[in-house]
Amino acid sequence: xxxxxxxxxxxxxAPSDPMVQVRTRADALYRAAVECCRQHDRSAKLxxxxxxxxxxxxxxxxxxxxxxxxxxxxxxxxxVAAGNxxxxxxxxxxxxxxxxxxxxxxxxxxxxxxxxxxKKVSTRxxxxxxxxxxxxxxxxxxxxxxxxxxAEAYRRTRPELG
Length: 162
Known about the structure:
Blueprint: H1 4-7, H2 18-47, H3 54-82, H4 92-120, H5 127-157
Helix pairs in contact: 2-3, 2-4, 2-5, 3-4, 4-5
């Protein structure tokens, strides 16, 4: 891959302007968010199909898990890069990147909550458990939609991202 060399820069070759590094991390967070949304869309389409190719489900679940992990890592990298940086001028991308960061963290929190709830719930569900599960899954879906909107808003400030 040609992009891996630039992604693995050593600290000596890192940009001297901290805002460049923050923007680079924000761009990476954007790409992770887009891919996360794309894989979850694929998963939703497959789940709604009448055929049930089990092997494809397994692989798609693994891809979704990997994308979720990547999103979390990119959000953490953005946190480190942007933590002590204050832009000298009002930058539109800065505000949208922070919104994307918030949406990424909220999605990760909601997704983790659904995973935890799924593990705790027994095979027999009472009405309260089912209502709680439904609410949590709807909140997770809402946070994925918010992530999608935040990524699109960020992209509009950085048209070169395509």
